[in-house]
Amino acid sequence: MANSTFLIQIITLFSIFFCVANSVVFNYPAFFNFGDSNSDTGELVAARGDILTLPNGQTYFKTPSGRFCDGRLIIDFLMDTIDRPFLNAYLDSIGTPSFRKGCNFAAAGSTIQPAAAQAVSPFSFGIQVAQFLRFKARVLQLLANGKKLDKYLPTEDYFQKGLYMFDIGQNDLAGAFYSKTFDQVLALIPSLLTEFETGIKAIYDQGARNFWIHNTGPLGCLTQNVARFGTDPSSLDELGCVSKHNQAAKIFNVQLHALCKKLQGQYTDSNFTYTDIYTIKSNLIANYSKFGKNDFILAILI
Fold it and tell me: Residue 17 — very low, low, confident or very high, per pLDDT cuts 50/70/90?
C-alpha cells in the first residue's frame, strides 16, 4: 500500500506548476485527455485485448484496471481531488461507461509522431485527435436524436468549457535513443513539436479553449533506460539517472514551453497552462526518503 505522505505529495503536483496563462481553477464541466501510459486508463488494453495481471492495480483497485501501473495515475489523483469520476477510456465500451464528464484518448506506448509498424501503440497523437473529432461529432449526433443518452454524454457546451489535457512525447524521445545518436535525438524535437502544434490547433478549431500541457519527465531516471543505457557510471548524473536522456528531456521541455507561450499569444481567447512535471518528478526522486520511499529504485518507479 502506498505511503499516505507519498500520496499527498503526488496530489500536490497540481498546485506546483508554471502557468503560461492565468492560474487554473478546476471547475470545468468535462475533461478530455490525450497521452501515453502516464495517463492511459484502459485504452490500449481495450484496443489490443491485453490481459493485465498483478502488480498492475494492486495498491488501489485491488485488481488490474487497464492502467500500466500498480495503482492510480496522476490523472486519477486529479479527478479524486476535485471529486470527479475517473475518466473512461474512449475504446472501453464494457460496463456502460459514462462520458458525461469527459473522455480519455491516451494509450500506453503512444508517440507524437505517427506510429511505426512495429510500435507498441498505433494510437499516435494524430490518431487520438482524430478519435476526439469523431467522438465529438458522434456525441452531437446522438444528442440531436433525443434525450435518452443525455446522462452518458457531454453537452455541446462542455466541449468549449472543458479542460483539454496532454502528456505525450516521452516515448518519442526514449525510443529514439535506441537507434539515434544524442544529436540526432535533439534534431528530432522540432518536428515532434510541429506535429503536436498541428493537433492542438485541430482541437482549438473544434472550440477547445482550455489547455493543460505536461512537459516530459526525467527520462533518464526510468528503470528501463537506466538498465539499458546506464551501465557505464560515467553516463549517469548526480541522481544516478542517464544524463543524455535527461538532457534531451530538458531541451524538449524548453522548446515545448516556448510553443505554449507562442500558442497563448496566438490564441488570446484561450488558456494554455504548462505544467513542469520534470521538476516535480526530479524532486520526488532526489528526495525519495522524505516521501515514504526507502529505496531509490522504488522512487524512480513513479
Answer: very low
CB of 125 closer than 8 Å to CB of 199 = yes
Q: Which tens digit of pLDDT belongs to each residue from 166-184?
A: 999 999 999 999 999 999 9
The band of 121, judged by pLDDT with boundaries at 50, 70 and 90, is very high
Distance between CA 182 and CA 245 in Å, rounded? Answer: 8
**Cell representation of residue 158:** 462542455
Nearest C-alpha neighbor of 128 from the set 157, 104, 94, 148? 104
| pLDDT value, residue 295 | 60
Among residues 55, 24, 56, which one has the least CA distance to residue 37?
Answer: 56
Grid cell, residue 130, equals 482524430
Supply the pLDDT for residue 93. 82
- Measured in whole angstroms, how far is the alpha carbon of residue 65 from the centre of its chain? 17
Residue with grid cell 499569444, as numbered in its chain: 265
Percentage of the chain modeled with pLDDT above 90: 79
Q: Which residues contact 182 (CB under 8 A, 6 or more apart)?
A: 244, 247, 248
Nearest to 212 by CA among 92, 8, 39, 80: 39
Q: Where are the beta strands (DSSP E) in the chain?
A: 18-19, 31-35, 102-104, 163-167, 210-214, 271-275
- C-alpha span between 190 and 204 (Å, rounded): 21
pTM for the whole structure: 0.91
Residue 284: Cβ within 10 Å count = 22
SS3 244: helix
C-alpha to C-alpha distance for 266 and 64, rounded to whole angstroms: 42
How many angstroms separate the CA atoms of 66 and 43, rounded? Answer: 7
